[in-house]
From TrEMBL:
Transmembrane segments: 20-38, 45-64, 84-104, 116-134, 154-181, 193-216, 222-242, 254-278
EC number: 2.7.13.3
UniProt entry keywords in alphabetical sequence: ATP-binding, Kinase, Membrane, Nucleotide-binding, Phosphoprotein, Transferase, Transmembrane, Transmembrane helix, Two-component regulatory system
Chemical reaction(s) catalysed: ATP + protein L-histidine = ADP + protein N-phospho-L-histidine
Organism this protein belongs to: Kribbella ginsengisoli
PANTHER family linked to this entry: NITRATE/NITRITE SENSOR PROTEIN NARX-RELATED, NITRATE_NITRITE SENSOR PROTEIN NARQ
Annotated Histidine kinase/HSP90-like ATPase domain residues: 546-636
A Pfam family hit: HisKA_3
Protein name per its UniProtKB record: histidine kinase
Amino acid sequence: MVVEIAAVVLSWRLEPEYDTLVYAVAGLTTVGAGAVIAQHRPENPIGWLFCGFGLYNATAADLLQGWGLRAAAEAWPGGPLAEWITSSSWLISGYGWTLTFLLFPTGRLPGPRWRPVPWVGALGLMLGTAGWSLSPGRGRDFSSGRNPWAVESLPTGLLLAVGMPLFLGALIAAVLSLAVRFRNTSGLERQQLKWFVLAASVAGVVLPITFALWYVTPAVGVLAALALSALPLAAGAAILRYRLYDIDLFISRTVAYATLSVALAAAYGVLIICLGTLLGRSSGWATAAATVVCAILFHPLRHRIQDAVDRRFNRSRYDALRRMTLFLDEVRGGRRAPEDVQPVLREIFADPDLELLVFLPESQRYVDLAGHPRDEDDRHRIVIERGGDPIGVVLHDSPAAFSPELLRRVVEQGGLAVEIARLRAEVRLQLSEVEASRARIVAAGNAERRRIERDLHDGAQQRLVSIGLALRHAQHQLGPARDAVGATLDRAVAEVGVAIGELRELAHGLPPALLDAGLGPAFHDLARRAPLPVSVQVPGERFDPGVETAAYFICCEGITNAVKHANASQVALAVRCQQQRLLVTVTDDGIGGADARRGTGLTGLADRIAVLGGTFHIHSRPGNGTTLTAELPCGS
């Protein structure tokens, strides 16, 4: 920085100011990029290389040039020597770029076959520098108009004829090594090469033009400085991986808009010529019509060109967006569920752990697509918004093959599917809450029915039995003398018996106390009290009380139907647990033909099972008996 400041002070107003400043910026850019690379990647020689030839350029090309100009203007000493060193400094700088091209981005040669290239370039550098700096024809590089160190007897032309091809050949070979690396690499290194190859391509076009026009139009030197400034910046961004994947978007957008501009300009020119021929060259209608046509063509043409460019220059972006577009078409056509957006994102980004969470505004929490509440973890996250309001978040591990911009673009494109999936998850969560509420109501009802059964059995029923016994005892005490009183007592005892029977009938629809000990005791008690043979096959393990109660009533309803409606001679009760589902079957050998749609107790039974998240099936053909099958989530 000190050297460049001194160079600017020495050269100021002795050459175009823009030339002085642009080359100072170029020198600082090279050394600055090299210093940052060397600090963060000290094992990579490219950072030290930038520092080295960047400092050399600042000294030999800028500072000594300023000294030469100032010496010529104010008769300072050493002016010709400074100009002589400056005149050939570009060769050493060029050799620095040859080494950079060969070593980028890893700091190692692409392979053993590239080892001769630096030595050939070094030989060409020595011969070319000698021929260039000692040639009598370099007088235009000196204020005096002649080269004071020219050697007339030296074959400088031959040295240039041999040295420059070797020097330029090594430079071209180094550029080709970038192409070889680019073809043979993938992933991270390929992205690094994209940055540098783009800058090198620009420099490869600009530098030969500026070299050819250097003495014709000195202003082209500014283009050379800008092109050389882009190279270290691109190298630094690539090596340090700063916004590494933005290059894909930059390249595709640059090529797309350049192509679009050329196409629209060509269309505008053709329309102007054609309409001008028809309407007259000075007609304003021709210009207006051509402008309107180009404006109409802009959007469709841009999309078509962008797709074509992405297919060629940004294939990963094109494939990812295309895959999401196809998925959305399938969702609109009803061929895919919106919840499939998560596996589609996993497939696109090759991240099997990618997870999509949707935001529920009422509860202000994130849930997965099944409606289960989830907490965010420390993975990378992409928030999906619509109208400024969050609708979801994608948690991912930032796959190396995709840029954050592309991740966000694909996720946002799938926002419609995410929004639908969010609404469905919200409905699913509400339904699960309703089912849980219904289950709690059923559980509370069962508990209340058990309490009533116990109260009836231990309270009113026992009291009625005691009253009946007391009345019968009083009748015996009266003896045969009180016939009228005895008849009254008989009727009272009969009424008490009817009341006890009604209470027993009422208690029959309540879960027995034996159910507290498990399905086995309750089922065996049910089989013992049934008026026909009942076989029982029940596991000894325990299940959720609500599930056990539902299983009990399924069997009660099955036995009741077999006795009252099916005229069955036997019933089989079977319970087994498989894959966390409790399978309950009641089979009889009756007349069949049962139908839950007729409003029997089977309808209420189906509702009870549905509350618990189970399924209920009836298989009952006329003359072939009836089989009731219920599947309940047992969670064991």
